[in-house]
Backbone:
């Protein structure tokens, strides 16, 4: 009996995973959707009537991890602006985790740019192709805003933080 339950559960789980993966590829280049959850400074969940729940990774930027200095502040800043709001998603790509990678706008504010300009995120140079994102980071650094306000030591980029965390495991 338990074995049959396990098999049924696994089949349902696989169907849900595949449906999510398929859905991310079917999402058009631009949609408007409701923000149901802010996971961290650069990841959110959207709800769309036609496409369901959509996990989105903000394109071109990288925010501090939750355990990093300014990680909680980045999450709070993003949440304060877009939580429970209808936003515009401009899809850039789908990543290896089957998340939509995109630009988010709310009230004509480019949220990705906003986070960098206000010192909550880095320009993710490995993936960034917009000069204005890098310029925003340079201005935030120059003005010592947000994560750039730390005097004692320069902030560790999240991609290096993740790499160090993997090495320590």
Residues:
């Amino acid at each position: 009996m338990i074995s049959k339950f396990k098999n049924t559960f696994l089949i349902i789980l696989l169907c849900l995973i595949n449906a999510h993966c398929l859905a991310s590829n079917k999402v058009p280049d631009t949609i408007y959707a409701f923000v149901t959850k802010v996971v961290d400074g650069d990841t959110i969940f959207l709800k769309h009537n036609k496409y369901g729940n959509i996990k989105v990774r903000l394109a071109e930027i990288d925010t501090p991890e939750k355990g990093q200095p300014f990680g909680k502040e980045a999450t709070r800043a993003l949440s304060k602006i877009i939580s429970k709001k209808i936003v515009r998603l401009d899809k850039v790509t789908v990543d290896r985790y089957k998340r939509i990678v995109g630009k988010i706008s709310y009230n004509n504010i480019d949220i990705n740019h906003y986070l960098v300009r206000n010192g909550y995120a880095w320009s993710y140079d490995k993936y960034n192709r917009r000069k204005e994102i890098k310029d925003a980071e340079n201005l935030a650094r120059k003005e010592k805003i947000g994560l750039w306000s730390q005097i004692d030591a320069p902030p560790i980029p999240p991609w290096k933080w993740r790499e160090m965390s993997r090495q320590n495991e």
Summary: The longest strand covers residues 30-40. Strands lie at 30-40, 43-48, 52-58, 61-62, 86-94, 100-106, 109-110, 122-123. The domain at 19-167 is CATH 2.40.50.90 (OB fold (Dihydrolipoamide Acetyltransferase, E2P)).
